């Protein structure tokens, strides 16, 4: 296997993503699948900011994903039909909710942190499920559409053109991922790594660990709510299932499957997971069993993820 | 009005007893093995369905006794084959594994017994109200409360007075020392897992008599059980018991005044506990 340095790997990823609408159909896929992979990849990479780079296990990210989606859907449906405004509202709602929940859980660690994030995630699930006069309850919010984006000099018709929407999502993805990489390379990001490697030592160095974990949590939820906005826009629909705990589990398994310790890992995990889910659910009614089995097998045989294994092979 | 309040408090007590029984099983496994068993709700559903299948052969009482043990055996087998491999690894992995198991169990029960809700027969003398004034107090509900109380009491007797129970409690505090003292901790964790799953199975049999049977029957019970553990305090079984009963009764009382918030109130309680006392009411300092 030829050795792939970091820069050429980055370039390869971007070339593949930029040309995806052209080769996806040729290999038997469809453009929407590529869009979905990008959206879930953003969510899984956002989760990995916390999971892989801060070492904190969150199992409740679907809540902020869903809140972003509901914020977007409700803005377009009830307030004003504008895609950028709707996304802004969605991101603010998701991030604000995370910022409020954050102080309650930033002191907790390990299993306890995971349990509390699951439980808090369910709060938003119940709200979206119960408050049906506003959220549509179990039926979700439909009868609204994403709106074409006007730049003044040109209009991007993301509503009617699949490819336009794909490139819109890719642009948002690129901006988010670029910001994420920048944050990870900053002193703040390095501090997070220090906390992951040895929390006690970080504390002795005078780093306010709880504050950093709270910040990392909020940043991670900020990115996941962006993904949630795009998710709602993709299907012109949002329902409580976007918030449920199984969605959080999907994000975690994508991150683990791709490789938690690598930047692009969750993208690969999301691609494998979604292609497999797409294939299985079109062939059998019992796709849940296969997805469950897939979780079990991943945990037992690929705990380091695809990129982790490749890296190991490269070293040895 | 008073009758309504009494009714809802009693209802909350029953629900709380379920939460507590689920949460005790979860807590046992979590304390000794550090595994959050997401598939607990699935094992509960298996308990209910097995009892349903056994009733024609064994009758109501036979099924009530046999089904939880069968579920416990399934749990022991699952621990041996799958979960045991993940001890000592990041808790992330056991969580994902049980997560996948939960999917498989839910789909499996749907495949075997069908997606539609099944009626669960209880003896007629148990299902009739005990008095006309307190119409809600059917024999079955009273019987459930008594049985759960007896089982929980038995559990604490086992934990306090039998060799197995003392070893489980010791292992919760320091598994390494227990192992050095010559106890086979693999067997200990295995049996402990079985004990936890037994409680889930029994809860499943009892719950299906009240709620009917669906593949997702455990879903509505598992989240409150988590909260019971968080409110009561991680690492403390009496705390878990208290937490379960507390949130059950609290949601029962809320039903009287503001029905749509009956689910929300337990999350509010959790938030309150995390603000005031992050380790939970009876939790130990510095355990997690």
* Beta strand count of chain B: 0
Q: What is the beta-strand fraction of chain A? A: under 5%
Quaternary state reads heterodimer
Question: Please, what is the average pLDDT of chain A?
Answer: 89
Mean pLDDT of chain B: 87
Q: Provide the β-strand percentage band of chain B.
A: under 5%
> What is the overall number of helices of chain A?
14
| Share of helical residues of chain A | over 70%
Specify which chain pair forms the largest interface.
A-B, 40 and 41 residues
Fraction of helical residues of chain B: over 70%
State the end-to-end CA separation of chain B: 44 Å
Sequence-ordered SSE layout with sheet pairings:
The complex is a heterodimer of chains A (about 325) and B (about 290).
Chain A: H1 6-26, H2 31-51, H3 61-79, H4 83-105, H5 110-130, H6 132-135, E1 149-150, E2 155-156, H7 162-185, H8 187-197, H9 199-204, H10 209-235, H11 245-258, H12 265-283, H13 287-301, H14 305-315
Antiparallel strand pairs in A: 1-2
Chain B: H1 2-33, H2 40-81, H3 91-113, H4 124-127, H5 139-161, H6 163-173, H7 175-180, H8 185-211, H9 219-232, H10 237-257, H11 264-276
Helix pairs in contact in B: 1-5, 1-8, 1-9, 1-10, 2-3, 2-8, 5-6, 5-8, 6-8, 9-10, 9-11, 10-11
């Amino acid at each position: 296997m030829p050795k792939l340095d970091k820069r050429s790997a980055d370039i390869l990823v971007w070339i593949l993503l930029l040309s995806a609408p052209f080769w996806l159909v040729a290999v038997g896929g469809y453009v929407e699948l590529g869009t979905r992979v990008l959206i879930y990849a953003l969510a899984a990479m956002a989760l990995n900011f916390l999971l892989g780079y801060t070492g904190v296990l969150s199992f409740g990210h679907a809540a902020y994903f869903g809140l972003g989606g509901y914020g977007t859907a409700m803005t377009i449906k009830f307030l004003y039909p504008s895609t950028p405004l709707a996304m802004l509202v969605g991101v603010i709602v998701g991030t604000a909710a995370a910022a409020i929940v954050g102080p309650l859980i930033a002191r907790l660690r390990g299993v306890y942190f995971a349990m509390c994030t699951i439980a808090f995630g369910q709060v938003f699930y119940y709200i979206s499920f119960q408050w049906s006069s506003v959220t549509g309850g179990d039926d979700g919010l439909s009868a609204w559409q994403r709106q074409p984006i006007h730049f003044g000099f040109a209009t991007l018709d993301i509503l009617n053109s699949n490819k336009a929407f794909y490139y819109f999502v890719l642009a948002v993805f690129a901006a988010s991922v670029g910001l994420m990489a920048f944050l990870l390379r900053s002193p703040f990001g390095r501090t997070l790594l220090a906390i992951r490697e040895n929390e006690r030592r970080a504390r002795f160095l005078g780093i306010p660990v709880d504050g950093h974990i709270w910040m990392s949590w909020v940043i991670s939820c900020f990115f996941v709510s962006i993904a949630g906005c795009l998710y709602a826009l993709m299907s012109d629909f949002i329902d409580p299932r976007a918030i449920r705990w199984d969605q959080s589990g999907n994000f975690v398994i994508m991150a683990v499957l791709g490789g938690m310790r690598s930047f692009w890992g969750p993208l690969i995990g999301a691609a494998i997971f979604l292609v497999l889910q797409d294939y299985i659910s079109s062939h059998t009614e019992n796709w849940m069993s296969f997805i469950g089995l897939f979780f079990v097998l991943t945990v037992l045989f690929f705990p380091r993820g695809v990129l982790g294994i490749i890296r190991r092979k490269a070293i040895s | 009005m008073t009758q309504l309040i009494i009714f809802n408090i009693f209802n909350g007590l029953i629900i709380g007893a379920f939460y507590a029984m689920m949460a005790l099983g979860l807590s046992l496994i979590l304390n000794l093995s550090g595994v959050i068993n997401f598939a607990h709700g699935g094992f509960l559903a298996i308990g209910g369905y097995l009892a349903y299948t056994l009733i024609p052969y064994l009758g109501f009482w036979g099924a009530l006794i046999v089904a939880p043990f069968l579920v416990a055996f399934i749990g022991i087998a699952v621990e041996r084959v799958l979960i045991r491999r993940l001890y000592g690894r990041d808790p992330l992995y056991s969580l994902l594994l049980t997560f996948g198991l939960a999917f498989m169990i839910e789909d499996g029960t749907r495949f075997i017994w069908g997606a539609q809700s099944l009626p669960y027969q209880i003896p007629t003398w148990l299902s009739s109200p005990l008095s006309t004034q307190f119409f809600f107090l059917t024999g079955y509900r009273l019987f459930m409360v008594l049985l759960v109380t007896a089982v929980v009491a038995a559990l604490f007797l086992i934990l306090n007075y039998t060799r197995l129970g003392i070893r489980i409690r010791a292992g919760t505090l320091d598994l390494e020392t227990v192992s050095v003292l010559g106890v086979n901790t693999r067997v200990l964790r295995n049996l402990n897992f079985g004990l936890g799953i037994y409680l889930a199975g029994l809860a499943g049999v009892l719950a299906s008599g009240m709620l009917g049977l669906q593949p997702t029957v455990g879903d509505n019970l598992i989240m409150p059980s988590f909260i019971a553990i968080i409110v009561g305090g991680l690492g403390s079984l009496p705390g878990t018991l208290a937490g379960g009963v507390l949130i059950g009764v609290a949601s029962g009382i809320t039903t009287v005044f503001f029905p749509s918030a009956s689910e929300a109130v337990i999350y509010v309680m959790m938030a309150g506990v995390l603000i005031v006392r992050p380790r939970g009411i009876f939790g130990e300092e510095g355990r997690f």
